[in-house]
Amino acid sequence: MSFEHPDAPQAPLTVTNRLVADGFAGTWEELEPLELPDRAAFFARDNLEALRAVRHQREHQRELLIAAQSRFEPALVDDLLRLGLTVVSGGGENVQEPPTQRATDPGRIWLLTSGSTGRPKQVGHTLDTLLTVRGKQPPRTWLNPYTPGAYAWWQVTTLALAHPGTSMVCVDGGHPWAEIAAEHGVDAASGTPTFWRQALLTQRDELAGVDFKQITLGGEPVDQAVMDLLADAFPNARISWIYASSEAGASIAVHDGKAGFPVEWLDHRADEGRPALSVDGEELLISSPNRGDGVPATLRTGDRVEIRDGRVHITGRLGSDEINVGGTKVSAGKVRDVLLAHPGIAWAAIKARKAPVVGNLVQATVVLDDKGLTEDDIIRYCTEHLAETEVPRRVRIVEEIPLKESLKSDV
Prior knowledge:
Belongs to the ATP-dependent AMP-binding enzyme family. Keywords: Ligase. InterPro entries: AMP-bd_C, AMP-bd_C_sf, AMP-dep_synth/lig_dom, ANL_N_sf. This is Acyl-CoA synthetase (AMP-forming)/AMP-acid ligase II. One of its GO terms (molecular function) is medium-chain fatty acid-CoA ligase activity. The protein has helices at about 45-60, 75-80, 125-130, 150-160, 180-185, 195-200, 205, 225-235, 330-340, 375-385; strands at about 1-5, 15, 20, 25, 40-45, 65-70, 85-90, 95, 110, 120-125, 140-145, 165-170, 190, 215, 240-245, 250-255, 260, 275-280, 285, 300-310, 310-315, 320-325, 330, 345-355, 360-370, 395-400. By secondary structure, it is α/β, with parallel strands linked by helices. The protein folds into three domains: about 1-130, Rossmann fold (3-Layer(aba) Sandwich), CATH 3.40.50; about 170-315, ANL, N-terminal domain (Rossmann fold), CATH 3.40.50.12780; about 320-400, GMP Synthetase, Chain A, domain 3, CATH 3.30.300.30. The strands form six sheets. An eight-stranded mixed beta sheet has the order 4-3-12-11-13-14-15-16. A six-stranded mixed beta sheet has the order 8-7-5-6-9-10, with helices on both faces. It has a five-stranded antiparallel beta sheet with strand order 17-21-20-19-18, with helices on one face. It is globular and about 60 Å long.
């Protein structure tokens, strides 16, 4: 059996790439496929189940959606049944058939959006549109800390499918993983800024045994402070950030170690199959050849951007990134970045707090690397670096970085 891709650096590609997941350590070829219906929505209990489903899909060109078992809930199941998918859970033991049958769309891979702004949607892709990196790659062993079926999980998994010499080690990103990474020779990893901050805060000693050559960030706004922290901790690594989503696919990749992307990329990237980037007001717009089926040619991302010092910075979601303080618009992303630039602050989140007269005030939640810092110290620091309306009037100090299953902050 072989895996082929028209843009892969070498074809055909045998399935000798190595996998480590939930007690399994072997090659794709040695991984036992998980038998599924022709059109299946599979709720996986762990990474190994998900990878077995991928092996089956790739071998037989099935139509497949993978989601973590934690996402199983009646409203979503109803949506998937209406889509014509057979819903499979419990390791294949529980099967719900759709009310009507339809023809299979061979090779179709469905992804679920996060549902953070409403009910999760289903977005159609193929392994071709999910493949982030197409050029020839050096042999790497990638850490995959993401939830099975998430877009970022597929990004790392397609690397392990498409490039010779690319191994993959799957872990639960919410638990300590550094020793596993060191044991299996991990030298590349992808994660959210929150994921990396938590790792540096709680596993710094163990991470000394991991010789990263490539570190990639995405899924959340990427600030300069976290890139500098990673560059300092892992001097042999190239530090990159990627903008990608279920809808737009992989759209932006920055490898110069800087937050934001060059303003020259706006309106000048629609060549050689690259996405075209533009800004309307404060919103990022993307026209991407990697977008999912049914996604508009020009996608309004809902992400807010700021242009500073010749770079375009993605600061957060429209609406949630903006706090109205007495009629003055305050960027939560700007306040967060100032706090994160403080060497004693490991993590920060900003939100509005209702207040009389002015309507809202800025509130910060922080995790400290320097336990000697006080709320007054932090407010005083902000006063020196921010306008009066931007200064947090309340600072909550918490002990642990809150991390969702998506590896994003839950604040």
